[in-house]
Specification:
The chain is α+β, with helices and mostly antiparallel strands. It has two domains: about 80 residues, Orthogonal Bundle (Arc Repressor Mutant, subunit A), CATH 1.10.10; about 180 residues, GAF domain (Beta-Lactamase), CATH 3.30.450. It is built from ten helices and eight strands. The strands form two sheets. It has a six-stranded antiparallel beta sheet, with helices on both faces. The protein has a two-stranded antiparallel sheet with strand order 1-2. Helix 2 crosses helix 4, helix 6 packs antiparallel against helix 10 and helix 7 packs across helix 9. The relative contact order is 0.11. Keywords: DNA-binding, Transcription, Transcription regulation. GO terms for molecular function: DNA binding; DNA-binding transcription factor activity. It comes from Caballeronia hypogeia.
Amino acid sequence: MAPDAIDADGDADRYRAPALDKGLDILELLSEQKSGLTRAEITKMLGRNASEMYRMLERLVARQYVMRSPEGDRYSLSLKLYALAHRHPPMNRLIAEALPVMQRFADAAEQSVHLAVYDRGNLLVIAQVDGPGAWGISVRLGSRVGLIDTGSGRVLLAFQTDEQRGHMLAEHTKVKGEVALDRAMVDTDYRQIRDVGYSQKDSQQTFGVTDVTFPLLGPSGQAIAALTCPYMRRIDEYIAPSIDDVTALLRETAASLSMMHD
């Protein structure tokens, strides 16, 4: 074994933090589960003592890294780590990767496009590209937009676990002008969107605009962001790409930025 490997092992032993390791083990295990786990399942899968797992789970719930199901018997990750990641440079890497791809879409579709992520109860627009030409509609970079009444919000809700969706809706805070929708309508919307894989719906903010939205999927199949084109149909003599053409282009763009591929 090389000397530096011995040193590395020595450092690993010297700086061990067993409690931190237990907490990280739980978070990493839950990150791989779509429906959460019971405490007994976590204890068995990690080969740990039941009482130490109980204490660790209680602290993770208290710090809001882990959520307990309404029945109290299952645990799953909250969106806290997801929210923390948005404040970290990896989000900048997502933006840097997305912008040139979004620009190619805007040029081909002759429409604007924006990228939004969930942030503290509603959505934050983190990237925006205008289409070419004199006409178009765009959402200002840095805007906070509604979780409930936008294509971006509905798509982000659609591609989450039940626990994460419940957390997002519980944390939801209305933005100025947001249209109120009842929970039954929201539930119907996200089920339909999940079935077809995207959303195409008349804008609830602006007449004459059809919002087309696709999810950017993470490795587990959950949406980490939503890519939306606020489609405006030309009625003059200029022949621009149709909404079907634009939808196909946006599907390809979102797939190329997703971390999960069919």
